Each structure stands twice: as C-alpha cells, then as structure tokens.
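2.7 Reproducibility. Because tokenized structures are sensitive to small changes in the input, we list the exact sequence used for EPS15 factor, including any N-terminal residues retained from the expression construct. No trimming or masking was applied before prediction.
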Amino acid sequence: SSPQVDSANAGRVLASDAAVFLKKSGLTDLVLGKIWDLADTDGKGILNKQEFFVALRLVACAQNGLDVSLSSLNLPVPPPRFTDTNSPLLLSGTASSDVPWAVKLEDKAKYDAIFDSLNPVNGLLSGDKVKPVLLNSKLPVDILGRVWELSDIDRDGMLDRDEFAVAMFLVYCALEKEPVPMSLPAALVPPSKRKPIGVPGAMPLIPSSTSTKESHQSLPPVGILAAKTPLSQ
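Resulting structure tokens (single pass, no recycling of outputs):
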C-alpha cells in the first residue's frame, strides 16, 4: 500500500507533503533540505517512489550519525524512525486506533455547542452553514479552504459533529499561528472515522451522528470563536 504522504496515489510525493512527513524524523531543516536535494534528482520538487525511498534511507543514515550522502546509501542502517504523537508512524495510511484524538474533551464540548447552534440537519452541517463560521475567524481564504478540505473527511460536502470539531481545531491552530497541515495527521482523524485495524466487528467508539439524538438543542447559541474575536458585526 502506498505511503500515507502520497495523497493523490499517483506514485509521487510533493515537496510540501514530504516536508511535513520528514519533519517527524526529528532532524533539523538543514539536514532535511540536504536529504531532499539528494533524493530529488531532477530538482522538480516531486519525489517518485524510488526517490522517496532514497529520502527515507538518508533519514535513517542521519538518525544513525552517518553522513547524509549518496555513498551512505549502501551502508546497513536500521529503518528510519518517525514520531507521530508518540506512536510509531504507520506507513500504511491507516490511522492507528490507539493514537489519542488530538481534540480534547473540553474543546469538543465547546465545538459541539457551536455545531448545535448552527441547526444541523440529520447531524450534518452543509458547507453554506459552516462557511460563515470559518470566515468569522478572519483567516485567509486559502487557509480556510484547506481547513474545509481536511475536515470533510468522507468528502460528502457536509460536516458531521466530529468533522466539524476537526475544522474548529484547525481554525484555532491557525489563529495561534500554527501552520495548517497539508494532509490530516493520524492523531486528528476522529476515532469514528478511523479504519479499524484487523479487529473483526470492531464498533466505532462514537455512535455515528445519525443515531445521536439532537439532545443539545436546549443550549443557547454560542458566539462563534467568541473567545478570540468579538462579534462586532
């Protein structure tokens, strides 16, 4: 199966995706830049599978104190190590079920209240309803577009409760000047959207949004992102 950084499955890895992935190796940008230059033989800013494996081998060399150079490629080294919220990164692209969700419980409650105040239909919010919330954050439109892309995990043009929490989480990150990732890290994939790994008949931990009764209707609508931006309009 293709590495999780190869988002379009075209057998190529873009510089931006690879950079996010390679950063998890814990090496400095200087070393990673050198690794990229050696691996990207034609300087196109794209690695094919072969070049990507070269990059991984060079990461392993650097992590084991060897020179980052093509001559090190033939030396025996253990496989490269990547940290992803303290669990070994799975190259298979499935979010491991035991990675804790990056959205904290108390934040989730806050995001759920916003979600309910937007009058979801069948537990889903359409893009039209989410858009004003995103725009309200005053973030650049291209960033908001990426937030939407990343949070609409099942690509149905709607956000359920968990997907909405991912969107809010990313917006808050961006407001804290954290870069919005190019592809969703395993830790951000909601448990309900993770592919169970070899557990027959595994139940998702969270009942899907259709079965959750809209029980929070009694909550007053919450000022969106009120903590950050006063709603002066």
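The domain at 12-72 is CATH 1.10.238.10 (Recoverin; domain 1).
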